[in-house]
Amino acid sequence: MSNKKNKTNENNNKKNKVIAQNSRKKLNPLSTGIIILLIAVIAVMVFNSLGSKKSAEVVSISSNQFTHSQPAALKPTKPIYTSVTAVDGEISLDTSLFDDDQVKYFTYETSGKKVNFFVIKSSDNVLRAAFDACDVCFSAKKGYRQEGDLMVCNMCGLM
User: Fold this and answer.
1) 79 - beta bridge partners?
2) What is the largest CA-CA distance in the chain?
3) How many structural domains is the chain composed of?
4) Which of 30, 85, 107, 150 could form a disulfide with 81 if both were Cys (CB 3.0 to 4.6 A apart)?
5) In whole angstroms, what is the distance from residue 93 CA to residue 79 CA?
6) Parallel, antiparallel, or unpaired for β 144-147 and 82-84?
7) Where are the beta strands (DSSP E) in 13-68?
8) Domain annotation covers residue 48
9) Which regions of 93-156 does DSSP assign to beta strands (E)?
10) CB 130 within 8 A of CB 117
11) How many Å apart are CA 119 and CA 158, to the nearest integer?
12) How many Å separate Cα 45 from the centre of its chain?
């Protein structure tokens, strides 16, 4: 029985020596350089592929003046504008139109020009009206779309 134990111990000692010798081997500088270069190339490829993917997710960038969102992947539908007229220089709208918390688009014609605007009930239950034209890219005449409680420019994503 002790012969078997001795042989097992000898085999284990031999294995341990081989493992110790292998762990002490160093890579030559050329191999190390190639490995580092491969890792760098793979990292650049991964980084570039992540940056080139277009996403439909909304990405918000806040500053003290505005919040920006990437335009949606799907083309927004053109709103249907309801024509309104002014009486004594005032446009009156029934407030119950906005109980569904959905934006309503209107157009008012004056001196041969159409003025498009929208009205929405905000989360604090206040009716808010604004021109359907972005402060930044109004010349594109793309207007705004509703995303939850926010109105987002169809061209640049400005909220």
Assistant:
1) none
2) 115
3) 2
4) 107
5) 18
6) unpaired
7) 61-62, 67-68
8) yes
9) 104-110, 113-121, 127-131, 144-147, 150-153
10) yes
11) 17
12) 21
- Same domain? For 121 and 90 the reply is yes
Residue 10, token pair as written in the block:
């000898």
| Residue 159 maps to a domain | no
Q: Contact 106/84 with Cβ under 8 angstroms?
A: yes
pTM greater than 0.70: no
Q: CA 46, 51, 52, 56: dihedral to nearest 10 degrees?
A: 120
Distance CA 120, CA 101 (A): 7
> Can you tell me which residue has the tokens 């008012």?
108
Q: Is residue 155 a contact partner of residue 140, using CB atoms and an 8 Å limit?
A: yes
59 alpha-carbon distance from chain centroid: 3
Give CA–CA dist 53/39, Å, rounded: 22
Q: What is the mean pLDDT of residues 19-48?
A: 62
